[in-house]
Recover the amino acids of this structure.
């Protein structure tokens, strides 16, 4: 990093103005970013009282020369930006020279720093923006910034702070996630005497995820690896086709090729991890933690028809692109960015997540696993994901338990009800153990020796713990539970498959494919079905009539607020036609005003599939069950039904062995 200078007015004027320091976590964010920009390999964050009383960041970065240390507290003093042009391609986390003066004006700040090229360090003390002391000091290399009594001189701002645990949780979340972005560095976070996070350098992001969250979370995630997509950039005002031709002609020229490479890596959760808000989605763009509606939308659309629309996944995504592709100067706390080619990035992220979901076909496990504990910081409430993991096991609903007391109990059969075809399922706990296996206390030496006498389980029979729905095609069905759930076994353990949602997924993909090819299988009705519509429904009908026809419902207006249905998609029973048409009109009314045609189409297909699918409480013979498993294995997304419910649960051989204390 070069020397610090004060930005000339013409640059300073172009910098997004506003509040830099809103809460303790924003102080931590700015200071942490400075340490990372300074090339630190170890960053230690100490806080007291949720950061209200004390925030201290210790780094082993390049430190500051004495003159620079003084200059750093001037507004718009930065070593990271020189002229207006640089603003267009910023590769450092900081660039505006606002953080240190802003923080120093609302706290008691102590800076201790020494650059490698100086023999003594510098200590500067500032309170409420006033310099109290500046002296030479014998210090180690790197920088320590101590911020005490945040907002002590601005009581109005102090009032807006949340409770100490909440502020602490925000800080923990921040440090945790920066640590995930930099697996090669050491991060420590302490709150008073408690160490909340301590991670040492590791070789991969996966190892860092393991360090931070423990093994259980890792098991629930799909790793992206590194995916790339290249974009051709047409010069302004030239149609793309001409520009490509031009480029081909001139491709021997030395100019930079007019392409941009986008790279995505990270982790995201299986569809069964369903969270009520977006707090567990972390997006880094070129190492910067941001919030971005476009990317949030891309993530949600990747899970379309795999997860209920009101649920969100856990995601930890790292997008890399040329610095010119992102404008980071749009928000005072640098948490929002603007992409130059937003829709390209949106589609890249959506497609990549979807492809990975389809490739990995993750199956939810339903047995408790031996859990490597997460770091304390990851368990603070703000990191809701890990919180839910802890809550999940004891409260998970049991799917084969008798129905609650409100249901009249049949003395023969346990009353057994599921909402067979209702829309989105409630939030599901992905580790729900309907067959609870409690590992119990570890076996005594004597007992385990006796168990050993039963023989070792051949190690090659123990599959990797990662279950994939690809194994569905090799399963052998054994029977049904309550004539609703197929029990099947395979090399890698026991599976339970919900027959209704499995069939729903099969039909959904079939109908979608037919729809895309414009060849929907239809059946002609002997007598047209006449449906009465409300004025509202009439409006919605007019809007979606074409789509309805293309989906296999041949309908036409038939007098005042009445339509005649002459044909319907092949799989549907005529008795249910009115229900499904009203259902589709309702979808059109409630969710889909203003939504895309593609979403409407998917929802219509989902409704058809749901109505046509075999129901629960239906006996299936072995041949039917086998057919269902093969057909499910052949779908693109055997993980969830189009409304987002899980289809199959897996009880791995490894977990069975663990349950019987054989490994
Ligand atoms: P910015 O990060 O936008 O440049 P800041 O106000 O955050 O502005 O910091 C001002 C300058 O102080 C930085 O440009 C950098 O040169 C220097 N600085 C701040 N923190 C550190 C640190 N931990 N190590 C080395 N230099 C630092
Ligand atoms: Mg900074």
């Amino acid at each position: 990093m070069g020397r610090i200078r004060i930005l000339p007015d013409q640059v300073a004027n172009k910098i997004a103005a506003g509040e830099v320091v809103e809460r303790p976590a924003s102080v931590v964010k700015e200071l942490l970013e400075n340490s990372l920009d300074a090339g630190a390999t170890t960053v230690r964050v100490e806080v007291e009282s949720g950061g209200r009383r004390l925030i201290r960041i210790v780094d082993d970065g390049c430190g500051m020369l004495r003159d620079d240390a003084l200059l750093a507290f001037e507004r718009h003093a930065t070593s990271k930006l020189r002229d207006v042009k640089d603003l267009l391609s910023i590769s450092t986390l900081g660039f505006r020279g606002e953080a240190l003066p802003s923080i120093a004006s609302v706290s008691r700040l102590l800076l201790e720093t020494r650059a490698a090229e100086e023999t003594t360090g510098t200590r500067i003390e500032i309170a409420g923006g006033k310099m109290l002391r500046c002296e030479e000091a014998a210090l180690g290399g790197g920088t320590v910034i101590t911020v005490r009594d945040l907002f002590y001189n601005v009581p109005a701002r102090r009032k807006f702070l949340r409770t100490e645990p909440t502020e602490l949780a925000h800080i923990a979340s921040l440090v945790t996630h920066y640590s995930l972005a930099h697996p090669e560095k050491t991060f420590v976070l302490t709150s008073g005497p408690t160490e909340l996070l301590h991670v040492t350098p590791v070789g991969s992001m996966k190892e860092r995820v393991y360090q931070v969250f423990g093994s259980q979370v890792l098991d629930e995630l799909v790793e992206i690896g590194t995916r790339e997509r290249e974009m051709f950039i047409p010069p302004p005002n030239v149609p793309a086709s001409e520009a490509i031709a031009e480029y081909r002609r001139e491709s021997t020229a030395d100019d930079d090729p007019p392409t941009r490479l986008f790279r995505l890596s990270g982790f995201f959760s299986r569809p069964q991890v369903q969270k009520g808000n977006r707090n567990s989605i972390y997006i880094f763009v070129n190492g910067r933690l941001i919030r971005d509606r476009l990317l949030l939308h891309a993530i949600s659309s990747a899970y379309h028809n795999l997860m209920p629309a009101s649920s969100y996944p856990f995601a930890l995504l790292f997008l890399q692109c040329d610095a010119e592709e992102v404008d980071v100067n749009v928000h005072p706390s640098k948490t929002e960015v603007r992409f130059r080619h937003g829709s390209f990035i949106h589609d890249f992220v959506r497609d990549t997540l979807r492809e990975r979901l389809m490739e990995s076909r993750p199956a939810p496990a339903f047995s408790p696993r031996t859990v490597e504990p997460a770091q304390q910081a990851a368990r603070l409430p703000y990191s809701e994901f890990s919180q839910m993991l802890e809550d999940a096991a004891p409260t998970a609903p049991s799917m084969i338990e008798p129905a609650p007391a409100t249901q009249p109990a049949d003395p023969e059969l346990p009353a057994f009800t599921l909402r067979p075809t209702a829309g989105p399922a409630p939030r599901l706990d992905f580790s729900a153990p309907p067959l609870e296996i409690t590992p119990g206390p570890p076996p005594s030496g004597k007992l385990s020796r006796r168990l050993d006498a039963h023989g070792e389980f051949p190690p090659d029979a123990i599959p990797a713990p990662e279950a994939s729905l690809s194994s569905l095609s090799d399963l052998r069905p054994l029977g049904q539970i309550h004539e609703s759930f197929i029990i099947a076994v395979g090399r890698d353990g026991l599976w339970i498959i919900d027959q209704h949602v499995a069939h729903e997924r099969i039909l959904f993909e079939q109908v979608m494919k037919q729809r895309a090819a414009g060849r929907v299988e239809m059946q002609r009705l002997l007598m047209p079905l006449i449906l009465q519509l409300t004025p509202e429904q009439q409006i919605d009908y007019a809007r979606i009539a074409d789509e309805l026809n293309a989906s296999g419902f041949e309908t036409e207006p038939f007098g005042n607020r009445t339509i005649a249905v002459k044909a319907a998609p092949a799989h549907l029973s005529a008795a249910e036609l009115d229900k499904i048409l009203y259902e589709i009109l309702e979808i059109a009314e409630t969710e889909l005003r203003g939504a895309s045609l593609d979403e409407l189409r998917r929802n219509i297909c989902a409704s058809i599939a749901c109505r046509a699918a075999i129901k629960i409480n239906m006996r299936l013979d072995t041949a039917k069950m086998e057919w269902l498993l093969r057909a499910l294995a052949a779908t693109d997304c055997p993980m969830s039904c189009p409304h987002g419910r899980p289809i199959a649960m897996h009880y791995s051989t490894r977990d069975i062995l663990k349950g019987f204390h054989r490994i």
User: Anything to note?
Assistant: The longest strand covers residues 221-232. Residues 342-360 form the longest helix (19 residues). Residues 392 and 429 are 6 Å apart (CA to CA). DSSP finds 20 helices and 24 strands in the chain.
